[in-house]
Amino acid sequence: MLIVLRLVNLVSLIGYCAEGDERHLIYEYMPKGCLADHLFEETRSRFLALYDILKHELMHDADIKFTEEMRLRVEEILDYNVPRGKLNRGLAVIETYKALKGDELSEEEFFLASVLGWCLEWLQACLLVLDDIMDNSQTRRGCICWYRRPKVGLNAINHGILLKTHTHRIFKRYFREKPYYLELTELCDEVGYQTSLGQMLDLVITHEGKNDLSKYTMQAYRRIVIYKTSYYSFYLPVACALLLSGEELENYNGIKEILIEMGVYFQVQDDYLDCFGDPEVAGKIGTDIEDYKCSWLIIQALKLADDNKKQILYENYGKSDPISVKKVKSLYQELDIQGIFSKYEAESYEKLLSAIEAQSSSVMREILKALLEKIYQRKK
């Protein structure tokens, strides 16, 4: 498979020059690396090119009497929130669909997979806009959060809802004649519902934790993460690609379980990077300590801490002043939470890899391995 093919250098043919009867080929050397990386960048470029088409269609919807002011506002909302992320969910739809087809996608197939991928990116934008408000976040993707922009504020709630409704209009335009349209819309609605429940659980336990940190358990954490992160970040892109391929989702329940566990691992990474990651690399400033979040780190710390250390956590966790935050981080370091995370990451990788290898479908094994490799030891 291309993912494991590595070359010293890749070259791009520019042209040739003629000297008499001889023709000398002229190559441009490309950076050292993996062929799959370069092909992935080509896919990403083609995917990005479709964004402007979808945006234009939404802004010139014949059913809506747009004023120029409305168009400019919608364009600003979209450009700031939709295409500026890593695009992992959208690209995962294309790459999974391509693997399932077992061949290069036709222009029509690539287009439809890209449209569906962008629907997931629109959904992601909606969730992040609203999540940042609820979490009182400062930055997102290296920039100030949308709701903190001048003249936006809580208007961002309306903008988040607008982003969600855009996905329905895109679905209707491109998929309503497809045999899988109903199942596709029901899948996305179901995952949207699950994600909203996860967000609610997160907010509820954060409120309860302010009175009693013992509420922060791995059982509660997993329940939040599975609903809030796993379904829409890992299961949804693969499930969408399966439907595009004409597959029945009920035949892939084993795959679903692996993707859900991959989502838990991903969220633990996110919690770790919130505290110990580089904000310049991650593109956001971590606030889990200040926000009293039910984070994997605080759960591990509570397990390991003696009564004196627990008292420090109770007195300082959830406070926004820098001194309290520093005390919590210092305690994390004293308890070697970084070392515990490294062990967890290695063990999670091996468990996931073992579960993947047990799958009977070689195609699904490669799809799942590619997803796992993309997030393993990530820095953002």
Automatic annotation (TrEMBL):
Tagged with keyword Transmembrane: no
Q: Which residues form the signal peptide?
A: 1-20
Q: Which Gene3D superfamilies match?
A: Farnesyl Diphosphate Synthase (1.10.600.10), Phosphorylase Kinase, domain 1 (3.30.200.20)
Give one GO molecular function term.
Answer: dimethylallyltranstransferase activity
Q: Which CDD domains match?
A: Trans_IPPS_HT
- Pfam families, per database record: polyprenyl_synt (PF00348)
**According to its UniProt record, which cofactors does this protein need?**
Mg(2+)
- According to UniProt, the name of this protein is Farnesyl pyrophosphate synthase
